[in-house]
Amino acid sequence: MNNEKKLYGIAATFKTPDEIIKAAKTTSSAGYISFDINTPYPVHGMDGAMKLKPSKLGFVTLIMGLTGASIALLLMFYTMSIEYPIVIGGKPFFALPAFIPITFELTVLLATLSTVGTMIALFFRLPDNKHPLHDTEYMKSVSNDKFGLVIESEDEKFNETEVLNFLKKLNPLTTELVYFPQEEAYPILQPKFLLFLISVAIVVSGGTYFSLNKLLIITPFNWMMDQEKVIPQKPSDIFADGRGMQLPVNGTVARGFIPYPYAGQTNPVEVLANPTLPTKENLELGKAKFFTYCSPCHGYFADGDSRLRGQFPNPPTLHSKRAKDFSDGMIYHIITNGQNVMPSYSSQITRDERWAIVNYVRVLQRAKNASDQDLIDMNKEAGSNVAN
Amino acid sequence: MNIDYSQEIPAVAGRLTLAQIEELVAKPMDTKPDKKFFIALTISGSLLMLGAVMIGLSFYYGTGLWGNNQPVGWAFPIVNFVFWVGIGHAGTLISAILFLLRQKWRTGIARFAEAMTIFAVMCAGIFPVIHTGRPWLAGYLLPYPNQHSLWVNFTSPLLWDVFAVSTYFTVSLVFWYVGLIPDFATMRDRTSSKLRKTIYSIFSLGWRHSNRHWTHYEKAYMLLAGFATPLVLSVHTIVSFDFAVSILPGWHATIFPPYFVAGAIFSGFAMVVTVLVFVRKIFDLQHIITIDHLERMNKIILSTGMMVGYAYAMEFFIAWYSGNPIESFVFINRAFGPYAWAYWIMVSCNVIFPQFFWFRKIRRSIPLMMIIVIFVNVGMWFERFVITVTSLSRDFLPSSWAYYKPTLVDGGILLGSFGLFFTLVILFTKALPVVSISEVKAVADGAQPTHHGGEHHE
């Protein structure tokens, strides 16, 4: 660029709205196209005088308004009818009447924001604080109470002296030559501007990270979580040994617990009598508990065929004469107390369950040594004669 | 009385020139604030601080500091929320509805009323958030894909509120800003201070008063007004749904949406008059905000006040006409129960006192109008109190009935919201043009072409 100033246009100011309307009409009829009128407020009839086409802004509003309505309806349809449908107040999953308020609000929001945004950014090409008209006497007077006309140098018919004469004929208050500013309009690579961009990026990303990852899940007060209480498996300051979990006091008896009088005796002289009856429920309970606790070593049928593949010594079969001659109380004693390598099951199996197991062991012993007569008796009871 | 109704009263009195209008409006911004300004700011700032401390205490110790308890869980916070949202409605009505109705007189007061809308909605926004008791979780109100894979309930009036109030705030702010752009440009071209010029340049976006821009600008302004009009009606309608969609007697009424909207405009105009009376006096704007403006607003207060009175009467009528004994009980309880004092304050302030505005002398007398509009402000606050508290304090189960009493902290937060509102208003009067310069210029005498040159015009 040489040192010569480049002309933007020639400006003239007028005193009254009538004069500016007349000036606009004359200018447009004279064939100038790149000209503009600057007035402190919209002057009625100016659009016609300048031969401007009606604004097309309404189409932006219409399209974006419809977009807002569709986004709202689709979002609600997807979230409430497809992704996570919940019945609320007996309404259908797609409750159109209840969706109307939000559809309306989003329509308005998107329509207005996009109208204003489009108008400013695309229709006006703002923000633009480097325009040649800024900081001229002309701009200061049309900002206040004068009415201005600029014929721009990019117009095809533009010729400096001709335009100046043309404007003088309109009887203006003042005329002014407006030049382009000398420096480059947008010094984008200025270090200051780059620094500004970087700091904006840091602030925005930091702020986003902080609000999404910290602020939104922050718990400012957690008094309810930090209470003076014992939490299982955790240390605690309440007790001298620093543990939360404590052994019960000596002699404590749990609810429903009856002390076993023969605990610790290998060969008790006397044992308890069986307090239960082998009812169907009792035997089913015994079967379930036998399967859980006894069958891993004793086998499902108490044959002593362990499922542990030799990782633990196999117990003897429970169908031996010795085992069959045990009293109910003795089997109960063995479960409670343990025997040889078998540990005590008193802490794992309740009293009633132990008796149920005893009854079930009796059933197994009987079943393994059934006689023919048993089958006949059973069929009689069942009312069928399959075996005959 | 011989008034010529065939001629419109001029929107700007005193035959001011365009430059004089600008001079008048820009004066508060060009001059240094005086002692009165700082006294006013100190008072409102102290109230704001009081409110901030009370909210801080509530955050620290929890909402147990408030009077809210079973059965009245929706006490002061919701009353104040509805009150402030209502105050905001006058601004949009003046800026949007009166614009669509081509009321030229709106230009003098529109900017100020819009600013009050924004400040009032800011005050309103505080209350539902603190009422949740866990304000830091307010982010969950937005529908965003989250780790709980849960969505908000789009069929709930409380969520509609979130959308309505935030849309209302955003659109009002944008509407306000669009109106301010030409005035920022005017201020930019007036000032000689470098700092202020930079600030005004940034906010004016480089506006050039170009007619190629004005033509789109006017279109956009009309579109925005067209959207703001149903929006303002929708906002208080949705606020009333908070009540009307519930099944509580006294709330479950189809009259609520129009009744709330009328009440909102009523209270909003009262607040606008309250503040404008001071502003026009302090900033010498009597020629721009004329006594005719105030009289017109008083007429609107009178008419909306009667709409509100009609709604009060209709509620009683429907309670009797429906033959529903519970409904009748609620309304008799409202007028003669433990909160009868609040009910009669409401009726006298909202229905009886505005009747004085039938007299032209009272409509045009500043001291009398001040008294009446302050009564209206009080009355409309009590209307929300009566609706919210009486229905809740005696609900379906007589064993849980209780008498709600607010605590000092409740009162402090309410005062704090007034402090916030007036602090913002006071700062606004010094920072921005309180009257739209370009709009008032456009309706001044001789501002538009006469078309007497024998040339046709559209």
Description:
The complex is a heterodimer of chains A (388) and B (458). Chain A has helices spanning 17-29, 46-49, 57-83, 96-123, 137-144, 160-169, 191-214, 280-298, 321-325, 328-337, 351-368, 372-382; strands at 7-14, 35-38, 147-152, 174-179. By secondary structure, chain A is of the alpha+beta class. In chain A, strands 2-3-1-4 form a 4-stranded antiparallel beta sheet, with helices on both faces. In chain A, α3 (57-83) runs antiparallel to α4 (96-123), α8 crosses α11 (351-368) and α10 packs across α11 (351-368). Chain A is rod-shaped and about 140 Å long. The N and C termini of chain A lie far apart (122 Å). Chain B is built from 15 helices and no strands. The two termini of chain B are 38 Å apart. The chains are: A alpha+beta (388), B mainly alpha (458). The interface between A and B is large, with 76 and 75 residues.
List the helices and strands and how they pair.
The complex is a heterodimer of chains A (388) and B (458).
Chain A: E1 7-14, H1 17-29, E2 35-38, H2 46-49, H3 57-83, H4 96-123, H5 137-144, E3 147-152, H6 160-169, E4 174-179, H7 191-214, H8 280-298, H9 321-325, H10 328-337, H11 351-368, H12 372-382
Antiparallel strand pairs in A: 1-3, 1-4, 2-3
Chain B: H1 18-30, H2 35-61, H3 76-100, H4 107-131, H5 157-190, H6 194-204, H7 211-244, H8 256-282, H9 291-321, H10 325-336, H11 340-352, H12 360-363, H13 366-393, H14 408-431, H15 437-443
Helix pairs in contact in B: 2-14, 3-4, 3-7, 3-8, 3-13, 4-5, 4-14, 5-6, 5-7, 7-8, 8-9, 8-13, 9-10, 10-11, 11-13
